[in-house]
Specification:
By secondary structure, the chain is α/β, with parallel strands linked by helices. The chain has 8 helices and 14 strands. The strands form 5 sheets. The protein has a 6-stranded parallel beta sheet, sandwiched between helices. A two-stranded parallel ribbon has the order 6-9. β4, α4 and β5 form a beta-alpha-beta unit. α5 crosses α8. The protein is globular. It starts with a strand and ends in a 10-residue tail after the last helix.
């Protein structure tokens, strides 16, 4: 089995590359400088020449707020590029696993969103990711929705909370959005096992079990650091002004395949990796803002 991983400079792709390397099979990771996914001909030519058995698409526009004023650019990579990949994989006989998001839902209701629940994105980012889902599914490929990702590579909520905890000042964090914090390494394992399975193509939810709020997540991080969790102060979404609306309920159901382990167990398992960042953060300062929650 030959693997191709797109978006190789991103947080999730780093873990997918590590996980696929354990298979002992050929794997190639490509960033935008190596392959422009918005170039239909280049995508088709590369997939035809490399002939991967599985393509994992980790590439995407992830700047949620910026997509409100740059929807066309976001759609190019989150929607059109997925279609080019899906078409190329279809011609080459390859299996595409496309990574999507909880933001395809409007977050209404109190129950977890099913894999086949009607989508209804609240923002431009969600609309562009839904376009990519539809393109992948049209060609009979796989869509893996995830949410609230964190990992060792790139800026994310955990890294930001580690930095803020060390400053020992109050931190206001949203407490009326619910979701499932998911470790990128766990999601990478989920994706690889799905790609190797005999499960039918379609939508799968790759998030941790359980649920919490951004505030609850932050308090757990402070506690693991040995800091005062009461420094994390709950605030409503309305107190954090952002261009893009966020769903109040980002919890995803797992009816088509097994869920990833509970979010708290995953965070504790990830902690040795994440705490290696503490010294780096203390030396380098701000490692970049979180995209969500605070």
């Amino acid at each position: 089995m030959r693997w191709l991983i797109t978006g190789a400079g991103g947080m999730l792709a780093a873990d997918v590359l590590d996980r696929t390397a354990l298979t002992g099979e050929p794997v190639l990771g490509l960033g935008r400088s190596e392959l422009d996914l918005c170039d239909k001909r280049a995508v088709g030519d590369f997939v035809s020449a490399y002939r991967p058995r599985v393509v994992v698409n980790c590439a995407g526009w992830t700047a949620v707020d910026a997509a409100e004023t740059h929807e066309d650019e976001a759609l190019a990579i989150n929607g059109h590029a997925v279609r080019w990949l899906a078409e190329a994989c279809d011609r080459a006989g390859a299996r595409l696993v496309h990574v999507s998001t909880d933001y395809v839902f409007d977050g209404a209701g109190a129950t977890p969103h099913l894999e086949d629940s009607p989508p209804g994105p609240l923002n431009a980012y969600g609309r562009t990711k839904l376009a990519g889902e539809r393109a992948a599914l049209e060609y009979g490929h796989y869509v893996v929705r995830s949410a609230w990702l964190y990992g060792a590579a790139g800026g994310n909520f955990v890294r930001t909370m580690i930095r803020l905890a060390r400053e020992q000042v109050p931190v206001d964090v949203v407490d009326d959005q619910r979701g499932q914090p998911t470790w990128a390494a766990d999601l990478a394992d989920f994706i690889v096992r799905l790609a190797q399975s005999d499960l039918p193509a379609g939508v799968y939810h790759g998030t941790s079990a359980g649920e919490t709020t951004w505030c609850g997540f932050a308090k757990e991080i402070f506690t693991l650091l040995g800091e005062d969790a009461d420094l994390v102060r709950p605030v409503p979404t309305s107190a954090v002004l952002r261009p893009a609306r966020r769903p109040a309920n980002s919890v995803l159901a797992h009816t088509r395949w097994e869920p990833i382990r509970h979010w708290r167990a995953a965070l504790h398992a990830a902690w040795p990796v994440m705490t290696e960042l503490v010294e780096v953060i203390s030396k380098q300062g701000n490692m970049g803002p979180t995209k969500e929650g605070s």
